[in-house]
Structure formats: C-alpha cells, structure tokens
C-alpha cells in the first residue's frame, strides 16, 4: 500500500464538495446530490482553494469552469472516490454472499424455523443461511455464529439480545393418553432433569417428579417424538408444539396456569451485519 500522511490532506467534506461540483458542473447540482445548500458547497470549495493555495474554479456563473489545476485535481478525486465506491460495494456483496450462520435449539429449528425458512430464501436469494441446531448455548463470537435464537432471560455475556416474541407453556399429550384420567398425577410424564422452569412449575403444583411415572429425556426432539407416540405428558413451549396441536395429534391439558417464556435474537457484541438485520426483521414479521 502507498504511504501518505492524513494530516497533509484537506478536510474530506471540501474534497467531496469540489469533486461533486466539478463532475456535475455547478454548485447547485452538487448541493442537491450532497443534500446541502448551494452556499455550503461554494464555501467548501473556497476553503479547499485556501488550504491548497491554488485557484481551482475559474468561473462559477451558469456553468462551472475549472482552471488547469482544478481539472487535474477533479480527475484524480473522481478516480479515487469511484475506486472507493467500487471497493465498498464489493465488500458489501462479499459480506452478503458469506451468508448467515445461526444456532438455536433442535426443537425451535425443526418446528419453527424450518417450516418458514424457504420464505426467507425466496425474499433474499442472495443471503445463504446455515442453521446449526444445538441445545447448548454456544459462544457466538468464538464459534463464528452471526445469530442465536434463545429462550430465557438475558443478558448473556458478550452478546446483545433483542426480544423476538413471548410464548406460553403448554401441557400436551395424545388425545388417547389424556382420556385415561383427568388427574395428571395419574398419567405418565416426559420430564427433563435440566429444565428449572419445569421443576419450579411442578413443585408449585404439588407434583413431585420422584412420585410421577416419568421417563427423563434431555433431547427436545426425542421428548416431542415420545409425546407423539403417547409415552407421556410433555411440558413444552406452545410455539414448538403448535403444529402438532393444530393437527390434532396432541391435545392441551386444560385448566392449568402455565408460565410464559420469552424468545430472543442474540448477536455478538459489535457492529450488526446487514444480513443479520434483514433476517431479524423478516423473522419478527413472520412470527
């Protein structure tokens, strides 16, 4: 790279004003492009002349006429700014083509994201999406993730969280299983040893996991599959069970006061990439 001293360069606004005026042929035209006033452009150009100690504009009446020095400087600035614009556009395209790497739980990925993801690809065919289902909370920056979708309560260290939506919990089972007894204590359960929300709710309702006929499954997709097979009642978020409830494969146990959970979009701290912002906006609209 060619070395240069920033301190020797004139202020950037004056260079930009002169390039626009020279290219467009008048201070007025440059003012419209730069979204400033005619006098502001003229003032910047005069300031540039004073800084250089060189006259750049020979006449500024109807049509701008440049001096020889002004012509040379205008050509150099135009080439420089055009090169910058082209490099910036290439960088934007490269960033979009890199796509998105997203992590979320297997249950949310399969039940919520996969059914609608084709809609994002249809709207944004230039943004590839790589979806990595994982139950553990990943270190986004270290593992190279652009975005996570998490349920719970922020903050998560080293990240910025934005509320995606609120969702109620449900108790669900197959219609045949629920028909066995109105008392959930007499029904088989599918429980998780690692879900504090589930444990707190059971304790608050006087249901002792040790006394329930229960199978413990820590994988959400296995738990959902077991529930669909009638192996037990499942405590889960409504959004993940929504399709199975709507189809009649599962039924909600009525009459229970169930907690609410919040889902969040989570990104590494720092500047948000444009594809991330577009995906989050699209997801909020769909959900």
Chart the SSEs and their pairings.
Elements: H1 12-24, H2 27-34, H3 38-52, E1 57-59, E2 65-66, H4 68-98, E3 100-104, H5 106-123, E4 129-133, H6 140-143, E5 147-151, E6 159-173, H7 175-178, E7 189-191, H8 196-204, E8 214-216, H9 220-228, E9 233-237, H10 238-247, E10 251-252, E11 260-268, H11 274-286
Parallel strand pairs: 3-4, 3-5, 7-8, 7-9
Antiparallel strand pairs: 1-2, 5-11, 6-9, 6-10, 6-11
Poorly predicted runs are none
The pLDDT mean sits at 90
Taken as a percent bin, the fraction of beta residues is 15-25%
Major sheet details: 9 strands, mixed
Structural class: alpha/beta
| Helix fraction by DSSP (H/I, runs of at least 4) | 40-55%
What is the count of structural domains?
Answer: 2
The name of the CATH architecture of the largest domain is 3-Layer(aba) Sandwich
Q: What is the molecular shape?
A: rod-shaped
User: Radius of gyration in whole Å, from Cα?
Assistant: 31 Å
Number of DSSP E strands: 11
The rounded distance between the terminal residues' Cα atoms is 48 Å
CATH class of the largest domain: Alpha Beta
Q: SSE order, as H and E?
A: HHHEEHEHEHEEHEHEHEHEEH
- CATH-defined fold name of the largest domain: D-Maltodextrin-Binding Protein, domain 2
Please work out how many helical segments DSSP would assign: 11
């Amino acid at each position: 790279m060619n070395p240069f001293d920033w301190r020797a360069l004139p202020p950037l606004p004056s260079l930009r004003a002169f390039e626009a005026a020279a290219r467009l042929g008048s201070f007025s035209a440059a003012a419209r492009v730069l979204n400033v006033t005619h006098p502001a452009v003229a003032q910047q150009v005069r300031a540039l002349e004073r800084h250089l100690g060189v006259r750049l504009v020979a006449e500024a009446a109807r049509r701008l006429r440049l001096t020889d020095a002004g012509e040379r400087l205008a050509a150099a600035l135009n080439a420089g700014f055009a090169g910058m614009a082209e490099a910036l556009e290439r960088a934007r395209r490269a960033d979009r083509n890199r796509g998105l790497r997203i992590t979320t739980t297997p249950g949310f990925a399969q039940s919520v994201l996969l059914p609608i993801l084709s809609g994002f690809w249809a709207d944004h065919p230039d943004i590839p999406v790589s979806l990595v289902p994982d139950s553990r909370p990943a270190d986004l920056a270290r593992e190279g993730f652009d975005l996570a979708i998490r349920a719970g309560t922020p903050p998560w260290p080293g990240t910025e969280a934005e509320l995606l939506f609120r969702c109620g919990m449900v108790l669900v089972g197959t219609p045949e299983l629920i028909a066995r007894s109105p008392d959930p204590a007499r029904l088989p359960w599918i429980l998780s040893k690692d879900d504090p929300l589930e444990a707190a709710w059971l304790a608050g309702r006087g249901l002792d996991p040790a006394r329930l006929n229960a199978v413990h499954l820590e994988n959400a997709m296995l738990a959902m599959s077991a529930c669909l097979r009638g192996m037990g009642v499942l405590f889960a978020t409504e959004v993940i069970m929504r399709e199975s409830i709507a189809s009649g494969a599962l039924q909600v146990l009525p009459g229970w006061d169930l907690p609410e959970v919040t889902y969040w979009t989570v990104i590494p701290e720092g500047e948000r990439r444009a594809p991330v912002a577009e995906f989050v906006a699209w997801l909020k609209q769909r959900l």
